[in-house]
Structure formats: C-alpha cells, structure tokens
Design a protein that fits this description.
InterPro entries: Bact_solute-bd_prot1, SBP. This is Extracellular solute-binding protein. Keywords: Signal, Transport. Belongs to the bacterial solute-binding protein 1 family. Pfam families: SBP_bac_1. The chain is of the alpha+beta class and about 425 residues long. It has two domains: about 180 residues, 3-Layer(aba) Sandwich (D-Maltodextrin-Binding Protein, domain 2); about 200 residues, 3-Layer(aba) Sandwich (D-Maltodextrin-Binding Protein, domain 2), CATH 3.40.190. It contains 19 helices and twelve strands. Strands 3-11-6-12 form a four-stranded antiparallel β-sheet. Helix 3 links the parallel strand 1 and strand 2. Helix 10 packs across helix 11 and helix 18 runs antiparallel to helix 19. The longest helix is centred in the N-terminal third of the chain and has 27 residues. The model has no long low-confidence stretch (mean pLDDT about 95). It binds alpha-D-glucopyranose (GLC).
C-alpha cells in the first residue's frame, strides 16, 4: 500500500501536476506582493473640526504630488484637552491608531517624556529651523531634542473696540487699571454691556490666559530649570485678584467662568463688549461681512499691572510622528509639507490662523489679508511659554482646579493658590 502510494507520486503525470500547483501558488504570491506594494501608504491624523476644511486642501495638494501616500484626517473635539486625552488613550493602548500627531505646544513635554514620539532633530536640519519662530522650536523640543514640526503659531492678544475708544477719547489700554477704568466708563455710558471677556472655564485655555496675567503682575508659575513654584507668591495672588475684580465689579459677566475661546468671541463679536482676551484667529471671523464689529476693532499686546510688561502666552500647533507608525519617512514627508512656506500660506489665507515661519509675517499677500501680522511677529517673539516640564499636563490640571475655585468664590485667592503651589511642589518632587 505504502509502495503503491510512492509509485503514484513518482508517476510523470502527478509530478507535472504538482509542479503546476507550485508554480501557480508562487506566482499568485508574487502578484499579491506586487499589489500590496502598489497600495498607497495610509497615514492618519486627528484635529479639530474648524481646521478640517483648510487642512483637507493641503492634503489634496500633497496627495497629488505623492500618489503613493494617503492622509486620512479624523475630526476630534474642539477642546484641546479632549483631543490630548484621545491621543493619550491611543498611545496607552499600545499600537496607536495615529501616525501623525497634530499637537498643541502644551502637550509636547508629556508626549515626548512618555516616549510616544519620534525624535525628528536630525531630520529638520539646524539651518532649516532658522525660519521658524524660536518659541515654536523651543516649545516643540524636550531635553534638547525636537519632537514637533511647527505648523501654526499662536499668541494671546487683547482685542479692543477702536470705535468706542476713539469716540470716548481713550487710547487702547496698556495696564489692567486702564482696562478697568475704560470699561466701567463705557459701561456707565451705556456704550457696551460688558467691559472685558476672557477664558475662565476650567480647561487648558484658563492656564494659557492666566500665564499672561501672571506675567503681567511679575509672577512665576514654575521655573523649568530650578522647578521653583511661585503660585503662592504675592504677585500670583494679585493676578488672581485682578481676574476676580473684573467679575466682582461687573466688568466681566459672572458667566465668564464658563467661557472658552468661542464663547468669548461670540459675545465680543456681537458688539456688546469693549475688550476681549483671545488668539489671533478671531480677527478673520470678526472681520467677515455681516460681523457687527467689522472694521471697528483692533488688537494689541495684553495689558499688565503698572510697572510690569505684557506677555503673550505662546500657543500653537505642530505635527509630531507617532513612534509606533510603520511609515516614519512618509509621515515626515507629510509633516514637512504642511510646514512648508507654500502650504502654510495657503492654509493661513483660508483659515486666519498664525504662521510659524518668520518670513510669512511680512509676506505681502498675507499682510494684505491680515494687516496685524508684522506687529504680531514682535509680540509672539516675546511670548511666554507655559512651563515646558514633563509633568505639565498635571501641573496645568492643578492650576486650573484651584484657579477655578478662586474665581467661583469657593476659596479665597490666598487659600486656593497656597493649595495649588503645595500640590504642584509635591508633583514635581515625585
Ligand atoms: C489655542 C492655542 C493652544 C492652547 C489652546 C487653549 O489653541 O494655540 O496652544 O493650548 O488655545 O485653549
């Protein structure tokens, strides 16, 4: 039986049949490999809804030049903290679903320290970095290595109603005192319902806004080199007191403690407010046809306490590469494309966000669309970073929690800031 079986296998017919099968299987796998190689590389990235359309245009241009790469943009929530949480969860789960990480400057130390990002220092050569704003490069670095390609910068500004100020004979305010005085006068005259709106909700925007007021009162949050914490110092308490005063004196609505950027913008744009703290993106929206304050407002550096200087909080967004991506070269190519002068210019013309390249702040076409850009360059060049420490996310949570408690009268500013300083020190000692 066994012998018959061997004889059958050795017969010519069967041999050629076997050969045919082997040939068929190997050519099929070759075809499958070729098909797989022709499949474009797919990259994914999550971002907020308001940036989807203008970024989609850049993606289309990039894909036309790189038919072997496809980029899928995934719409995330507007709140920066919620998107940070989604990226964090994806990384904690292991094989992240995202190849490209569209990151707030404030996330960099945490993501880099956790080892979730590729070091791109050797890809973006030192000479190439020179056109980018130094705050964007600094804020995109951790322990001397670069982890984020700067795409769009940001800096907090004071918006003011030029028409109302001119009518009443006021120059735009430089100090917190002037801001309160002008607000109260114009409110008393019935020219505006509110004096000042800002971001008072408990979220990252509260920390970004507070960095500016703190700087304007000569205070310190955390010194990144010495890890000294200054939140319980008199300057920090004076900064909190100023914010509380705006609410107590009804210069700001009490609801300001639930405002993010968009809530502040909507009420300012409706024409009911004299001053607003916000990012430059508002300029384009408030200047659109049909906006009640079109051509009736200006922007300037933030107010500060008498004797101090103003500091814009350095914000901004850039692109990191997930360490788990299977396509680091394609991912870098895409990040470098988005950050290129041509792509940024197109994106900014469409969206009203701020460039991260110096040369674009004086680009004639961009200046024609956004006249404030040349002045903004100086403001952002002198901006203040949120402390670039690995524990930034927790430190910001602590500050937000206690600041919010002080603003909503659950604790006195002194007690709130003492607790904030104590918890921050404990966090940094861990
Ligand atoms: C803006 C800034 C960002 C900041 C956020 C806070 O998007 O660019 O840096 O963290 O606002 O809401």
């Amino acid at each position: 039986m066994h012998r018959n079986w061997l004889r059958w296998l050795a017969s010519k017919k069967v041999k050629s049949l076997l050969m045919a099968v082997i040939l068929f299987v190997s050519s099929l796998s070759l075809v499958m490999m070729a098909v797989a190689q022709q499949q474009p590389i797919r990259l994914t990235m999550m971002l907020q809804a308001s940036e989807l359309m203008p970024l989609q245009e850049l993606v289309r241009d990039f894909e036309a030049e790189n038919p072997d790469i496809r980029i899928e943009l995934i719409e995330g929530p507007d709140n920066t903290n919620l998107r940070e949480d989604l990226y964090t969860t994806a990384f904690l789960l292991g094989d992240s679903a995202y190849d490209l990480v569209y990151m707030d400057i404030a996330w960099v130390p945490k993501f880099a320290a956790a080892g979730w990002l590729l070091d791109i220092s050797s890809r973006l050569q030192v000479q190439e970095r020179e056109d980018f704003l130094s705050g964007d490069i600094e804020g995109g670095s951790y322990e001397g290595k670069l982890y984020r390609m700067p795409f769009r910068s940001d800096g907090g500004m004071l918006y003011y109603r030029q028409d109302l100020l001119e009518e009443a004979g006021y120059a735009p305010p430089d100090t917190t005192e002037e801001l309160l005085e002008i607000s109260q006068d114009l409110q008393a005259q019935g020219k505006a319902q509110w004096g000042y709106v800002w971001q008072g909700q408990q979220y990252e925007g509260l920390s970004a806004m507070f960095v500016e007021i703190l700087h304007g009162f000569g205070g310190l949050w955390v010194d990144p080199d010495t890890l000294e914490v200054g939140l319980d110092q008199p300057q920090a308490i004076a900064a909190v007191n100023f914010l509380k005063q705006t609410i107590a004196e009804r210069v700001s609505p009490s609801g300001v403690t639930s405002y993010q950027e968009e809530e502040a913008r909507r009420v300012f744009q409706s024409g009911q407010v004299v001053f607003m703290r916000n990012w430059p993106y508002v300029w384009r929206l408030a200047s659109e046809e049909g906006s009640p304050i079109r051509d009736r407002f200006g922007i300037k550096p933030m107010v500060h306490a008498p004797g101090y200087s103003s500091g814009a909080c350095q914000g901004g967004w850039g692109i990191g590469i997930a360490k788990t991506t299977r396509h680091p070269d394609a991912a870098y190519k895409a990040a470098a494309y988005f950050a290129s002068p041509e792509a940024q210019k197109k994106f900014i013309l469409e969206s009203g966000f701020v460039p991260s390249r110096r040369s674009l702040f004086t680009d004639p076409e961009l200046v024609a669309a956004y006249e404030y850009l040349p002045d903004l360059l100086e403001v952002i060049d002198n901006s203040v970073l949120r402390p670039p420490i690995a524990q930034y996310a927790q430190a910001s949570d602590v500050l937000q929690r206690y600041l919010s408690a002080a603003l909503t009268n659950q604790r006195t500013p002194e007690r709130a800031m003492e607790a904030a300083a104590r918890e921050t020190r404990q966090l940094l000692q861990r």
